[in-house]
Amino acid sequence: MGPAERCDVVVVGSGPNGLAAAVTMARAGLDVRVYEAQSTLGGGARTLDFGMAPGLVHDICSAVHPLAAASPFFREFDLAARGVELRYSDVSYAQPLDGGRAGVAYRDLDRTVEGLGADGRGWRRLLGPLVRHVPGVVDAALSDRRSLPKDPLSAVQLGRAVVEQGTRLWNLRWKDEVAPALLTGVGAHAISTLPSLPVAGTAVMLAALAHSPGWALPVGGSQAIVDAMIDDLKAHGAMVTTGAEITDFEQLPTARAYLFDTTPRNLLQVMGERLPNRYRRTLAGYRYGDAVCKVDFVLSGPVPWTHPEVGRASTVHVCGTREEMARAEAEVAAGRHAEYPMTLVSDPTVTDDAREVDGLRPLWAYAHVPAGSTVDIGATVQAGIERFAPGFGDVVVERRAIPAAQMAHHNANYIGGDFAAGALTTWQLLARPALRWDPWATPVPGVYLCSSASPPAPGVHGMCGWHAARRALRAVFGIKRPPSLAPHV
Ligand SMILES: Cc1cc2nc3c(=O)[nH]c(=O)nc-3n(C[C@H](O)[C@H](O)[C@H](O)COP(=O)(O)OP(=O)(O)OC[C@H]3O[C@@H](n4cnc5c(N)ncnc54)[C@H](O)[C@@H]3O)c2cc1C
Fold first, then answer.
1. Engineered SS bond to 26: which of 20, 238, 310, 486, CB 3.0-4.6 Å?
2. Torsion angle of alpha carbons 62, 67, 73, 78, nearest 10°?
3. Which ligand 1 atom is the nearest neighbour of the CA of 13?
4. Which helix H or strand E contains 481, and what residues bound it?
5. What distance in Å separates the CA atoms of residue 416 and residue 33, rounded to the nearest whole number?
6. For residue 416, how far is its CA from the centre of ligand 1 (angstroms)?
7. What helix, strand, coil percent values describe the chain, rounded to 5?
């Protein structure tokens, strides 16, 4: 490897966005090389054996895939036709509350509305229009943020819901505490103070997807998604190298296009003075956000949630009421650890009993902590679950935590444990990584950023990579019509 070698396209990083970019370029007939720092491919969508129990595998980062199921990239790539089975529980997510109560989001909107009592009507009025027009909502949310929405009415309805739930108006529609807690828990897939527009955007989009088509878990774990992309890449002649951490441009072969599935900080390090001063200053000022501590458990049985429906959910949001979540997120934003941090929990055996081995099952969890936290909050997460599932400790066989400060050891994009590759502020959602008409292109011709530090947003949807690759195909190779992603082509 080095400038003496030649190819058409270099992709640095093999997360879902890097792979989406590489697949698109390879299918356009270009000679593509992918370089990955880690010993395994797939970035934030890997499923690994941590050695916690023989044969048991854990999703090291992402586990639940409403975005992969809905994303235009993956719809065209057609995961099902490639043997990736996405399974849905009829309970998409749940929010346990004290006193044995819980908010339960069924795939069936009517059933959800029924369970929310006095707030059922408010839930339907907020989400019903979005659920009826999910493709338009997904198009608006995962678009390049530069084109006019294909379905302007859905975009307006989405915007209206985001403004209401992302500002001080957020409590006006609710009478009880269950429905607002249920919605706020979904927003916790983004980390920010509450209420905020980015969290509300995350909440209403994922809440709409929960009702149609649902929140998917791939059989076998997230790795199934990226393995399908790697197979496709190899079938189209791409070369993939692991254990190759890129810190200097001179390490890379000479190519016509370079796509970085990395943070702006790594792009700055690799490109150095090849980038103009002004752009370098912009990248240096790009802000990283608060963080997560990942906590994995091995259990001898299901979590004994007090409310039985909670145990059927693809994801459980653990923290209590909306007010408790707002307090916990405010603590994190102030640089402190919350007593009950915002915690996300998923038991993959809810949809895939083959994930249980010899009576043991993995339980995936993570909780919000301040950026760069070195604290192992495993015991706090366990206590948070125990609050709504007394006796949880009795089924815990083993627990392992990765403090935020160590998250970058297995993925350099998670600076200080920020799994969004950059703070999710309203400004940084629009100007990710810089305020430019083409935010994927850098001022150096042929050099692109394609990670979730570029639009539209974090998550396993491949859209950052797809947007970047299509721009590079047009600008560098003069290919105006993007290649088909369909299997067998
Ligand atoms: C604990 C956790 C839970 C999550 N849960 C979900 C979830 O349930 N659903 C969901 O949709 N999303 C989830 N996410 C977010 C999701 O994983 C990311 O948004 C997504 O993986 C981003 O994809 P990417 O391709 O931009 O980057 P990544 O997936 O982060 O991949 C970047 C890749 O680039 C490599 N790399 C970086 N720098 C270099 C370098 N200098 N040289 C070579 N290689 C390099 C890294 O090793 C990595 O493989 C979660 C993330 C975490 C951490």
1. 238
2. 90
3. 34
4. none
5. 29
6. 14
7. 45, 15, 40
Residue 489 binned pLDDT confidence (cut-offs 50, 70, 90):
confident
| Mode of pairing for the β-strands spanning 32-35 and 9-12 | parallel
Class of domain 9-51+221-288+420-477: alpha beta
pLDDT band per the 50, 70, 90 thresholds, residue 2: confident
pLDDT band, residue 145 (cuts 50/70/90): confident
Ligand 1: lining residues by beta carbon, under 6 Å = 12-18, 35-38, 43-45, 61-65, 67, 245-246, 261-262, 266, 292, 294, 366, 411-414, 419, 451-452, 458-460, 464
What DSSP line would sit under 425-476, residue for residue? Answer: -HHHHHSSSSS-SSTTB-SSTTEEE-STTSSS-SSSS-HHHHHHHHHHHHHH
Which strands make up the sheet holding 239-241, listed edge to edge?
239-241, 32-35, 9-12, 257-260, 447-449
List strand residue ranges (DSSP E) for 20-128, in order: 32-35, 47-48, 58-59, 86-88, 91-96, 102-106
Q: Which CATH number fits domain 72-217+290-410: 3.90.660, 1.10.12, 2.40.160, 3.30.2310?
A: 3.90.660
- Nearest CA residue ID for atom 34, ligand 1: 13
Burial class (CB in 10 A: 0-12, 13-18, 19+), 357: middle
Delimiting residues of CATH 3.50.50.60 domain(s) in the chain: 9-51+221-288+420-477
Ligand 1 atom closest to residue 244's alpha carbon, by position in its atom list? 43
The CA 429 to ligand 1 mean position distance, Å, reads 17
The three-class DSSP label of residue 88 is strand
Q: Which pair of tokens denotes residue 168?
A: 């001080």
- Cα 377 to chain centroid distance, Å, stands at 21
Environment class of 277 (CB within 10 Å of its CB; exposed 0-12, middle 13-18, buried 19+): exposed
Atom index in ligand 1 nearest the CA of residue 450 equals 26
Q: What is the DSSP letter of 288?
A: P
Residue range 180-184: average pLDDT?
98
Kind and range of the H or E run holding 257: strand 257-260
CA 469–ligand 1 middle distance (angstroms): 18
Q: Which residues contact 478 (CB under 8 A, 6 or more apart)?
A: none
Counting ligand 1 atoms within 8 A of each CB, the residue from 241, 411, 448 with the most, and so the one to mutate, is 411
- Per the structure block, which two tokens stand in for 422? 């950059």
